[in-house]
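Annual report, structural modelling task.

Input specification for the adenosine-5'-triphosphate complex:
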Amino acid sequence: MKPFLEMISISKTFPGVKALDHVDLHLNSGEVHVLAGENGAGKSTLMKIMTGVLRADPGGEIRIEGEPVVIKNPVHARSLGISIIYQELAVVNNLTVSENVFLAREPLRPTGLIDRAKMNADTRAVLSELGVDIDPEAMVGTLSVGQRQLIEIARAISYKSKLIIMDEPTASLSHHEASTLLRMSRKLASQGVGIVFISHKLEEIFEIADRVTVLRDGRTVDTRPVSEMTSDLLVRLMVDRELDQLFGHHTSHATAEVLMSVRNLTEKRVKDEGVFVRDVDFDLHRGEVLGFFGLVGAGRTEVMEMIFGSRPHTGEISINGKPARISSPSDAIEHGLGFVTEDRQSRGLVLGMSVRENFSLTHLSDYCSLDFVNRRKETAACADYIRALGIKTPSPEQKVLNLSGGNQQKVVLAKWAARRPRILIVDEPTRGIDIGAKAEVHSLLGSMAEEGMSIIVVSSDLPEILAISDRVIVLKEGRISGELTRENATQESVMLAATG
Ligand SMILES: Nc1ncnc2c1ncn2[C@@H]1O[C@H](COP(=O)(O)OP(=O)(O)OP(=O)(O)O)[C@@H](O)[C@H]1O
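The model returned the following structure:
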């Protein structure tokens, strides 16, 4: 079979970084081709070249159906049949579903007015082809993240795309939404569309791929049918380590001492709105890693925002046996709390600043004496974390904006870990992080607990929760629906509490 798209000897150099080094990638029509590789391996850069966002260095070639092409920009890429669906959604919330699908190319009547009936009918046709039940006239802002992602796919289909690139599409989806997306991707492939699927999740890769290409340090290390790939081999190709050596054994450092106790934590009513999260009671022990699990929308992030003072609440929080009034994040920080948010780009980092500056934002005073900042000490501390977490950056002075997504996430974690809060809340700490780095994050959290810090881990990755928690609290519809000791927490018992 002739490939639909061939990328031959593609390189891309940024100042101080060779992001791609003579990469070859052949994509066939009708196949799901998974692109795997650790954070910073070059996956997104390759996709940006394929969609005309970036130009490759001279010397390589791109062919579509055998013909050499120069992909000038994203509009040109689309006209060549290449579309991309990003994890950060590109839909407009205050337009309807069909307005989004036909944005900037609405069908017109002879009078020059938009032909809404046709637009809705065509959208309905694409959606039913996908087998999803979404009203074309619904406002996109009222839909779930998963549904919004499906709208993007509907848009790509209506462009008659021959190749659809999905960059970590399931990262923010619930389990159910993710399986709908996987099913849909397979269906599109069976209709002859080529799919490029970027993912860090091993189970998902094996569920969806026809072929897998692994990138490492900007080079193609292997391409093979998924039937000739195993988890062990994939991990070895990606991070050069064995899967069973990556994750160590769990040791609990939890003590009997209660460090924080939370009672009747309830969202504060805003005007006439009802409250969602209510009556949350739990204790957190010194040195404990406490997992918080729940399905998407169960209220996990809301609970953490209330504890951290960024969401109005009623109820009592005590720290070290004393009532703590926390009505803003600065109150929380004063009481020794740290919060690694789920949304790294908008709340976790100042993208235009360097890795070092972002790192020390939370604890600059540690490096100050008199009125001076001891730059050497600051840079050395930052370099230690770069090493411990394997942050891929040419230097601590690199702007965070230029790091890959997974490496940005590691910087957020490093800056809070270095502050050494008494209580650290981490929300989805390993989303978008490769499997090697995930092991490093788990080990960092374990050693912080060993030093006596208490950690709350919020994650929708159930195996992760089970692997690192001393105890698991389950939320369902804004309330605690289960509390399980490490011995009693299994996939089944936790899911049962989460779904009732
Ligand atoms: N504009 C830029 N300037 C400098 N370096 C860059 C720029 N864009 C990307 N890089 C670097 O190129 C390398 C490849 O990054 P890329 O985003 O392609 O990785 P990735 O495989 O998609 O990683 P992740 O899994 O974390 O998303 C990284 O070292 C990154 O820091």
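Residues 175-190 form the longest helix (16 residues).
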